Amino acid sequence: MKNVVLLGPPGAGKGTLAHRLQEEGFLHLSTGDVLRDEIARGTPLGLLAKTYMDRGELVPDEVILDIVRSFLGRQAAQQGFLFDGFPRTSSQATALAQIAQVDVVIYLDISKEEVVRRLSARRVCENCGANYNLITQPPKAAGQCDRCGGNLIQRSDDIPEVIAHRYDVYLRSSIPVVNYYEKQGVLVRVDASRSPERVYSDVIAALRNDCP
Ligand code: AMP
């Protein structure tokens, strides 16, 4: 099993794709999910991270790298990691190269307009973390999670001004990361403006080509 990094701006569909790839056996780490869990539990790390996240800014590298090291430390064997939302900066990418090998990097390509449209309609289950979209993937009952019946909420960083800022921050900081992996010949670009099914089948094809 290969180690995979999912890259792409917020709203490109990394979370949805990652959930499906987990079913293929990948060990998933979303640094954003870990940070939101820390915030929900009111830990010191969560309180610190919230001050950055509410403004759409990146959380400092040392905080993120501690999360990644502790995730890797918990896995007995090096098998099929799926990083989602990490690395976000070239210094994070360089640090990752020292602790784990990256075999395939999927870049989900999408415009700012489409991201703002999608994320303004995003709702998340406050209980199990399942994602919905009021336009493309609404829950069966309004405001209620199909899976566990939990309340659906809007993330505090999913309002249009913050979304547009997060997109700009993402692009600015990730261009060096994209270039870094492109030079290594491991980057695969996927058009993420299409349906989740089309994106998923392209990604699976890319992983199979790379993982005979
Ligand atoms: P995400 O769920 O990946 O969109 O992340 C939500 C927010 O968490 C981001 O806007 C950042 O504030 C923070 N965050 C998540 N992952 C990282 C990372 N690798 N580096 C820095 N900040 C991060």
Which structural class do the helices and strands define?
A: alpha/beta
Q: SSE order, as H and E?
A: EHEHHHEHEHEEEHEH
CA distance, first residue to last residue = 10 Å
Shape: globular
The whole-angstrom Rg is 16 Å
Tell me about the largest β-sheet. Answer: 5 strands, parallel
Which spans of ≥5 residues are poorly predicted at pLDDT below 50?
none
- DSSP, total strands: 8
Strand order of the largest sheet: 2-3-1-4-8
Strand content: 15-25%
**Estimated helix fraction:** 40-55%
- Number of helical segments with 4 or more residues: 8
Word description of this protein:
This protein is an alpha/beta fold. The protein has eight helices and eight strands, in the order βαβαααβαβαβββαβα. The strands form two sheets. It has a five-stranded parallel beta sheet with strand order 2-3-1-4-8, sandwiched between helices. Strand 5 and strand 6 (131-133) form a beta hairpin. Helix 2 packs across helix 3 (44-53), helix 4 (61-74) packs parallel to helix 5 (90-99) and helix 6 (112-120) crosses helix 7. The chain is globular. The protein starts with a strand and ends with a helix. The structure holds adenosine monophosphate (AMP).
Notable characteristics:
single chain, 212 residues, alpha/beta, five-stranded parallel beta sheet, three-stranded antiparallel beta sheet, 8 helices, 48% helix, binds adenosine monophosphate
